[in-house]
């Protein structure tokens, strides 16, 4: 059978660029626009590249420059040679087979989970993880404790009617702190600023405009939280795109839950990040529940990590209640995003110990003993504490001292925040645009006039 | 003096503004402050900004060549991309394909395929991506292949683009430009004939402008890119091939200012985008019949330039709005309401508004024509108003 095998479209594009275009196949005419796809010389990591071997953006900006840097080696592209049973459609070569085989809906076994510490806080023998210094280990631990106490106190404050809303991260302290610690040496928990945001007072960076825990800080490179689910994922890709344009030695990271992976934005963001080779870490906190929807009703795939492959993204599943595992995984992910210019998907398995928010009572849809089990026996903080104390880096005395100090500091922060004045009414109209336009000036004037005419109907402690 | 006068005025809003001298003194300064603030970068840009505010567009230009609108838009893009490396373009097929209406043709070769980014098909997501990039300091221009598809991006545009500057307390700015062709074309069917200005006009934090000529297309594109606020630039599918001479020297058009197309005495006709041409065609007939219409292309859909509009109404006392939006909830509806709020005392006749019917745009040519306001209707409306 004289079946002359043509090359993959990427190779043909390169040949066209080199002007050595031989035998045009019909399927090539009017095919994809002449984006010149170039093999990146530095792309192969630890062995043969998979079939998605084309890289889009080279070090140079211009695609004309990229065309000049084509690889001459196209003999064993993808490992195929002439004579294999191969088809070449747009997208690359595929082997064909005469038997009809459907891909199974899931693999026989679930993807394994990376874990370093066992339930007693002992490192598992043979485990490999990123070393942490004593200072870093202690810092991580005290931040986790601070977060836990903060959640407890602010939850109580909401129940007392002092703030309108709160959402805890009980059970996920390791995810929050360890992942952030792998990215930054900055302070990770700022009690007073946090309290100011929850109370929406004058010192809030957000000027009292967002509901509690929807904070943000330009200084700390933390985009203001926005309520709609998963809208932050494409924004993270945009931020990564910006870092890529500026050729910065940095990556973006974005967090979302198991529920967020059902949103359209999740799929598009992962797809975009893969195609654009954006340096972004997609961190999924798979805590088993999206308000009252368990993961069995959220998706039918083996969790979230397998979806990375669907988009051509490398991923890892990690024990989210193991602070060291999370730290190591994010540390490695960061390296990969920056040096290889690719997105990474991290799925951290964990359990949402608290209710979804102060508007939820999760005992209505899940058993109380299940919650208790995860709150006590599987608590990430006490597990990590055992490891830190096992290294003689922490003691019981320091524990009680820390908890006492933190509690005082937080209560103090709440009191200060509560007593602080609210933003003045003028802040209702600023920052809608860069400068206040005339229609908003009028509306502000109208509001002022109304308040001045009917002062009894408006709170006295809000300055005009 | 300006501040004292406006606060003691009993007339609400821009009515007071248009009548009292302080406002007319304040307005150009305010406008040039906005434009000047927006015009960062080389001194050349700032200088032109001040000139652009004062200029009476047509008479002061040195005509250069005949440019179709899409080329004018492209020129504006290229000039801004050259002078500011943070400006980038993203959208479907904007790269080597050059965009479905060729507005970005050649840009990928000039600036590389990272700065002129082809995205997968997910409007919500590439708009979100543009917002994220803007929050990190870039100035993205997001192209919707057709405005109607940007309905998929509504979540990002409303909840994030419009809001994040506010909810972050001013910490993050979103200087994106969202643009694309909209309006009724030639038998493109209902989904490709949307007028999204109706849907977006309520979103706080957004600015909206509609271009209608090659001159204002380039000027508005440049101004939109330089603005620190998110701007939606409405182009029209049928206006890309209009040709006009535009100047060699750099210019921008102020985003908040309406354009006086034809001064007149008898009636103020407010319109924008493609309807401008139907109005001007009707104006020829009206002039022959002895009428003297004043035609204003409002250009700025959010906020309305009530200064220019108000001055016109005070002169003519009659208003006709001609739009392509649906009758319910369109730009005309809002404009009519704003005029009544501010200029009620100056009206000698009820405001008339000619709009499309509240129907999806049909495909059949005759039906499609019947759903768009035609010059004959405009003539009849003016005759009725001026009775």
Keywords:
heterodimer, A: 464 residues, alpha/beta, 4-stranded parallel sheet, two-stranded antiparallel ribbon, 13 helices, 8 strands, globular, disordered N terminus, B: 387 residues, 7-stranded mixed sheet, 5-stranded mixed sheet, 17 helices, oxidoreductase (chain B), EC 1.2.4.1 (chain B), plastid (chain B)
Describe the 3D structure.
The complex is a heterodimer of chains A (about 475) and B (about 375). With about 475 residues, chain A is an alpha/beta fold. Chain A has 13 helices and eight strands. Chain A has a four-stranded parallel sheet, sandwiched between helices. A two-stranded antiparallel sheet of chain A has the order 1-2. The termini of chain A are far apart. The relative contact order of chain A is 0.12. Chain B is of the alpha/beta class and about 375 residues long. Chain B contains 17 helices and 14 strands. In chain B, the strands form three sheets. Chain B has a seven-stranded mixed sheet, sandwiched between helices. Chain B has a five-stranded mixed sheet with strand order 9-11-10-13-14, sandwiched between helices. In chain B, strand 10 (about 265-270), helix 13 (about 275-290) and strand 11 (about 295) form a beta-alpha-beta unit. Chain B is globular, with a radius of gyration of 20 Å. The interface between A and B is large, with 62 and 66 residues.
**Which strands sit side by side, in order, in the main sheet of chain B?**
3-2-4-5-7-6-12
Radius of gyration of chain A: 27 Å
For the biggest β-sheet of chain A, the strand order reads 3-4-8-7
End-to-end distance of chain A: 87 Å
Number of strands of chain A: 8
Question: Could you say which structural class the secondary elements and strand pairing of chain A correspond to?
Answer: alpha/beta
Shape of chain B: globular
- Beta-strand segment tally of chain B: 14
Rg of chain B, rounded, reads 20 Å
The H/E string of chain A reads: HHEEHHHHEHEEEHEHEHHHH
Runs of chain B in which pLDDT lies below 50 for 5 or more consecutive residues are: 1-56
Mean pLDDT reading of chain B: 85
Mean pLDDT across the residues of chain A is 83
């Amino acid at each position: 059978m004289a079946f002359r095998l043509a090359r993959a479209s990427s190779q043909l594009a390169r040949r066209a660029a080199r002007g050595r275009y031989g035998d045009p196949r019909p399927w090539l005419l009017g095919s994809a626009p002449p984006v010149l796809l170039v093999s990146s010389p530095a792309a192969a990591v630890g062995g043969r590249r998979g079939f998605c071997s084309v890289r889009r953006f080279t070090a140079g900006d211009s695609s004309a420059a990229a065309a000049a840097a084509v690889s001459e080696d196209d003999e064993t592209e993808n490992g195929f040679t002439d004579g294999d049973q191969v088809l070449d459609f747009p997208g690359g070569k595929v082997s064909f087979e005469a038997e009809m085989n459907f891909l199974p809906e899931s693999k026989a076994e679930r993807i394994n989970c990376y874990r370093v510490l066992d339930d007693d806080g002992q490192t598992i023998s043979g485990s490999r993880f990123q070393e942490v210094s004593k200072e870093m280990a202690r810092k991580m631990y005290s931040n986790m404790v601070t977060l836990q106490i903060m959640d407890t106190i602010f939850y109580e404050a909401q129940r007392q009617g002092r703030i309108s809303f709160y959402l805890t991260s009980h059970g996920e302290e390791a995810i929050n702190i360890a992942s952030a610690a792998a990215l930054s040496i900055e302070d990770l928990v700022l009690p007073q600023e946090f309290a100011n945001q929850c109370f929406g007072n004058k010192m809030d960076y957000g000027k009292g405009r967002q509901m509690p825990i929807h904070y943000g800080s330009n200084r700390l490179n933390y985009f203001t939280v926005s309520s709609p689910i998963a809208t932050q994922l494409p924004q993270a890709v945009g931020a990564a795109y910006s870092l890529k344009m500026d050729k910065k030695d940095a990556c973006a990271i974005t967090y979302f839950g198991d529920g967020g992976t059902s949103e359209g934005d999740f799929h598009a963001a992962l797809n975009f990040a893969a195609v654009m080779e954006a340096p972004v870490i997609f961190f999924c906190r798979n805590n088993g529940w999206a308000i009252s929807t368990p993961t069995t009703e959220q998706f039918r795939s083996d969790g979230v990590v397998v979806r990375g492959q669907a988009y051509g993204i490398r991923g890892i599943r990690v024990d989210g209640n193991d602070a060291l595992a999370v730290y190591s995984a994010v540390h490695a992910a960061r390296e990969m995003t920056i040096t290889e210019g690719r997105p990474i998907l991290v799925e951290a398995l964990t359990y949402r110990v608290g209710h979804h928010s102060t508007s939820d009572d999760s005992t209505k849809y899940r058993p109380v003993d299940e919650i208790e089990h995860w709150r006590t026996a599987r608590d990430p903080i006490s597990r990590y504490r055992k490891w830190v104390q096992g290294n003689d880096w922490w003691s019981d005395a320091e524990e009680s001292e820390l908890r006492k100090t933190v509690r005082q500091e937080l209560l103090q922060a709440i009191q200060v925040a509560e007593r602080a004045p609210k933003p003045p009414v003028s802040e209702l109209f600023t920052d809608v645009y860069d400068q206040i336009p005339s229609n908003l000036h009028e509306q502000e004037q109208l509001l002022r006039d109304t308040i001045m005419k009917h002062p009894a109907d408006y709170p006295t402690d809000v300055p005009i | 003096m300006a501040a004292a006068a406006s606060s003691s005025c009993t007339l609400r809003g821009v009515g007071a503004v248009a009548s009292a001298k302080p406002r007319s003194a304040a307005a150009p300064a305010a406008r040039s402050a906005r434009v000047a603030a927006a015009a960062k970068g080389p001194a050349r840009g700032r200088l032109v900004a001040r000139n652009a505010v004062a200029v009476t567009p047509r008479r002061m230009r040195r005509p250069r060549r005949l440019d179709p609108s899409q080329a004018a838009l492209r020129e504006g893009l290229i000039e801004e991309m050259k002078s500011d490396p943070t400006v980038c373009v993203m959208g479907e097929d904007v790269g080597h394909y050059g965009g479905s209406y060729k507005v970005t043709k050649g840009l990928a070769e000039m600036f590389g395929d990272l700065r002129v980014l082809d995205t997968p098909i997910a409007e919500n997501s590439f708009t979100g991506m543009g917002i994220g990039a803007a929050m990190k300091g870039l100035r993205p221009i997001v192209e919707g292949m057709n405005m109607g598809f940007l309905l998929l991006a509504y979540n990002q545009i409303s909840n994030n683009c419009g809001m994040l500057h506010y909810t972050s307390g001013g910490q993050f700015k979103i200087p994106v430009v969202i643009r694309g062709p909209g309006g009724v074309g030639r038998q493109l069917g209902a989904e490709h004939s949307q007028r999204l200005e109706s849907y977006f006009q309520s979103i706080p934090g957004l600015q909206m402008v509609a271009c209608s000529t090659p001159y204002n297309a380039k000027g508005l594109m440049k101004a939109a890119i330089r603005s620190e606020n998110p701007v939606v630039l409405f182009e029209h599918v049928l206006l890309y091939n209009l040709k006009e001479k535009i100047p060699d020297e750099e210019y921008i058009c102020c985003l908040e200012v309406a354009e006086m197309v034809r001064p007149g005495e008898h009636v103020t006709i407010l319109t924008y985008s493609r309807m401008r041409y139907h109005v001007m065609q009707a104006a020829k007939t009206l002039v022959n019949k002895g009428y003297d219409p004043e035609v204003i292309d409002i250009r700025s859909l959010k906020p309305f330039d009530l200064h220019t509009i108000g001055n016109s109404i005070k002169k003519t006392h009659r208003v006709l709005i001609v739009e392509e939006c649906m009758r319910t909830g369109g730009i005309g509806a809002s404009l009519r309401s704003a005029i009544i709020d501010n200029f009620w005392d100056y009206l000698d006749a009820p405001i008339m508004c000619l709009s499309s019917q509240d129907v999806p745009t049909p495909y059949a040519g005759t039906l499609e024509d019947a759903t768009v306001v035609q010059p004959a209707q405009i003539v009849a409306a003016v005759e009725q108003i001026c009775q």
